[in-house]
Write a structure and sequence with these properties.
about 200 residues; 2 strands; mainly alpha; 9 helices; two-stranded antiparallel ribbon
Length: about 200
């Protein structure tokens, strides 16, 4: 049976076919949390604000790992930040640990977990094999990130402030580019895996 064609099989499980699920998941979670760490520090010049890679990596981890492992990987990343490791964007310059996590960024971090889980749930049902469904899953993931992020941001700074102008609209153009990239990348990787396994 071609496991790559199975809609319930994740990309990570297909690419790393280790029989011991605990060992495989531990490796993936550690590698994923490191990828999140690196992505938090990357910034590409873009308009109207620099393009960061972290939301893309969050959503790709969810898609590649599946719902439970994707969310668990993001939780591991947050735990690393909570104990004071400088894993977040702007750390250690803007603070570290729980103090940073409770700042205006906190809602987005919670959204990362929800988004990875939701996108992973859809990927387990084959959404990562179609460009259109991949894009829709990524849009849903972004909505979850922004929903929790903006709710927290508005609570912290006050709803009389321009919350959408600060926490949403400057990032939409960059998100569109990242969604388009993922919509091409994920199905392409699956096609390559399927061709290799024939």
């Amino acid at each position: 049976m071609n496991t790559a064609a199975s809609p319930t099989n994740t990309l990570a499980k297909t690419l790393l076919p280790i029989d011991n699920a605990v060992v495989r998941n531990l490796i993936l979670a550690i590698v994923g949390s490191l990828a999140l760490w690196v992505s938090a520090k990357l910034s590409i010049p873009f308009w109207p604000v620099p393009l960061t890679m972290q939301t893309l990596v969050v959503l790709v981890i969810g898609m590649a790992f599946g719902a439970r492992l994707g969310a668990a990987t993001v939780l591991l990343y947050l735990a690393e930040g909570a104990v004071g490791l400088p894993v977040f964007s702007g750390t250690p310059e803007k603070g570290i640990g729980l103090a940073y996590m409770m700042s205006t960024t906190g809602g987005y971090l919670v959204g990362f977990v929800l988004a990875a889980g939701a996108v992973g749930f859809l990927a387990e049902r084959g959404w990562d094999r179609s460009p259109v469904k991949t894009a829709l899953a990524m849009v849903l993931g972004n909505i979850l990130i922004y929903m929790t992020g903006l709710l927290w941001l508005g609570t912290i700074v006050g709803w009389d402030k321009p919350v959408l102008a600060w926490g949403l609209t400057p990032f939409l153009a960059g998100d569109a580019v990242k969604i388009a990239a993922a919509a091409v990348l994920m199905p392409l990787v699956w096609r390559l895996v399927s061709a290799f396994k024939r």
